[in-house]
């Protein structure tokens, strides 16, 4: 009865209740008449059996009407469950057949979800095309800078190279942002924090092998966040790279969870960060130390990615003495 309208269900239930109550009322009326001695002498045992059958029929009709109304409410509860599944990312569409009054709304919602996915895919594709289109001119400019350096114009070449690197970082930043927007619109995105953290730590241990850094991972295997693996790698990679850059000897990554979120912390034992700088360095192009290498986009990328997934990033004081970065994402 999935496609039956609510109206027909309620009318049918009302009819069943009316007939049932009418039969039940007749039985009650007959029973009252039996209290009259003159009626009692006329009636015989067969009437009592008919009365019992009538009461059974009354009960069946009332139960059938109740079941019909209950099935209608169950359909609405099922729709609510499917909507929650789409919101949580475990389903991409609202599946099932619903009453005639609700089915058009379900169809429109599914069409809207499909249109949104297509629009996001087109936007990401265009962003990618733009980035690839800019790579060739940047490569040509880089070659010209190298030629200028070879002819003795080192200062001019360094200025050009710095601007080229800045443009590359801008392109990378906006590509990551566009990809994350698409990932956030893709239901079902989820990945393991442990697998991402361990893979990144292995890479960073090789990169910083000469510094004697100790990188530790304390992430339970069951901690999973609602994000694409490449985006989680981007966020954790930036946080770990930043921690390794400033750490004296140790970097630690841990995670904790509740019913709705996973909190990932990255600690270092470096010199720390002034309180007034903690919010500032999360903005685009801002660096804690202008003399240090970098573009100032790393933490801004983490912030934007986290917000696109409904999460957040905050900087504080680490128990190790340096900076603690706390990344919170939906579980």
The first-level CATH class name of the largest domain:
Alpha Beta
CATH topology of the largest domain: Heat Shock Protein 90
Proper CATH architecture of the largest domain: 2-Layer Sandwich
The shape is: elongated
Question: What's the order of the H and E elements?
Answer: HHHHHEHEEHEEHEE
End-to-end distance: 36 Å
Q: How large is the count of helical segments?
A: 8
How would you name the CATH homologous superfamily of the largest domain?
Histidine kinase-like ATPase, C-terminal domain
State the helical fraction. 55-70%
Counting structural domains, the number is: 3
Unreliable parts: 287-295
Q: Approximately what portion of the residues adopt beta-strand conformation?
A: 5-15%
**How would a textbook summarize the main sheet?**
5 strands, mixed
- Structural class of the helix and strand makeup? alpha+beta
Integer-rounded radius of gyration: 34 Å
Strand order of the largest sheet: 2-4-5-7-6
Number of strands: 7
Average of pLDDT: 76
């Amino acid at each position: 009865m999935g496609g039956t309208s609510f109206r027909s269900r309620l009318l049918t239930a009302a009819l069943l209740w009316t007939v049932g109550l009418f039969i039940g009322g007749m039985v009650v009326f007959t029973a009252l008449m039996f209290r009259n001695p003159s009626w009692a002498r006329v009636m015989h045992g067969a009437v009592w059996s008919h009365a019992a059958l009538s009461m059974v029929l009354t009960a069946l009709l009332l139960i059938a009407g109740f079941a019909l109304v209950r099935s209608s409410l169950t359909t609405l509860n099922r729709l609510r469950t499917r909507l929650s599944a789409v919101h949580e990312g475990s389903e991409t569409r609202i599946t099932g057949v619903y009453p005639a009054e609700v089915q058009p709304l379900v169809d429109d919602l599914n069409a809207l979800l499909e249109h949104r996915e297509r629009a996001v895919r087109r936007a990401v594709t265009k962003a990618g095309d733009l980035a690839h289109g800019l790579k060739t001119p940047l490569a040509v400019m880089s070659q010209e800078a190298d030629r200028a350096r070879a002819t003795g114009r080192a200062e001019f070449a360094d200025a050009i190279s710095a601007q080229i690197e800045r443009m590359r970082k801008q392109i990378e930043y906006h590509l990551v942002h566009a990809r994350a927007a698409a990932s956030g619109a893709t239901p079902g995105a989820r990945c393991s924090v442990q697998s991402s953290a361990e893979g990144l730590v292995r890479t960073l241990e090789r990169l910083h092998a000469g510094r004697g850094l100790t990188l530790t991972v304390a992430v339970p295997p069951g901690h999973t966040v609602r994000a694409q693996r490449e985006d989680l790698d981007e966020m954790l990679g930036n946080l770990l790279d930043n921690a390794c850059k400033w750490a004296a000897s140790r970097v630690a990554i841990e995670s904790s969870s509740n019913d709705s979120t996973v909190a990932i912390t990255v600690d270092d034992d470096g010199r720390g960060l002034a309180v007034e700088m903690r919010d500032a360095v999360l903005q685009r192009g801002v660096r804690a130390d202008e003399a240090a290498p970098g573009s100032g986009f790393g933490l801004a990328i983490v912030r934007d990615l986290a917000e696109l997934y409904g999460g957040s990033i905050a900087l504080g004081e680490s128990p190790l003495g340096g900076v603690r970065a706390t990344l919170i994402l939906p579980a």
